[in-house]
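Morning!

This is the sequence you dropped in the shared folder:
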Amino acid sequence: MKNLVAIIVGGTGQFGIITKEFLLKKNYKVIVTTRSINKKKKLFKKHRNLKLNKLNIYNKKEINKLLYKYKPSLVFYYAGQSSPAKSFFCKKETYRSNVLGCKNFLDIILKNNYNCKFVNASSCEMYGKINDKIKVTSIKKPVNPYGLAKLKSFEITKKYREIHNIKTYNAIIFNTESFFRNKSYLIPKICLAAINAKKYHLKTEFGNLKISREWNWCPEQVKYLLKFIKKKPQDFILSSGKNYTAIQMFKFAFKHFNLNYKNYILINKKKFFRKKDILQKKSDWKSCLIRNRINRKVSIYGNRLITKLINYYLKNNY
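The structure's back. Tokens below.
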């Protein structure tokens, strides 16, 4: 019988929290690792099949002890500094957390011949500036330290699959939102700006509004990630193809309160503009789905995504 045990490394971010919920419903025993258990306990309700485990991703002895104890069938590597903007100021942490931690797990899996699937959370940031739709095979020229770190972990994960026959997957993730997304990212910030404009007539500072992205909903992303990893080990794009400009998302959020966004935002080029901002990102999202005979239905995007976040923030008094 299949060993229904999963380890989620760095499982206290939005992907970790939501992956955990999906797996618990599938009767998996889920071990979530974090650097600090006490600080993260409030994110998790008690469950008989859920365990929080403190882990240093740079300590191979701890990793081996974890894998030997639980013998998982699935390992998700979600650890790593995940902000492109922040990566310019903490290059070493960004590289080590995304690359070295990932490699340490793969080394231990290979050395001890652990029979598990390894899923690396990769990123569209590794492609840099591309005008065409991004394919898995598109040229990769990252423009920030975060993208470079994700490219290195992508290459390592792929290498262990092709050379060492480890069952590895690279999920190339495009922008993703949820209730658990850090509030400093653009979409949560837009929603909170609209709320503060309505409640307190406050104005909020932003950077470049001329960008466009495929802003996905995290539960939908995780749903299809789990479908992909049932297929043969591979690299795949995780996105919906629903592209919106930042200005469109502003309009959705402020229209929720019958406000004009132009009256409540300030542009701070010095603080928020980056020379290497990527204006547009579009994915060739269908090709991976077709190749794997997966049919993706997208229901939460654009205005509906904004509305869900605003209602959640209002309900929880953000």
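Headline: DSSP finds twelve helices and 13 strands in the chain.

More detail when I'm at my desk.
O.
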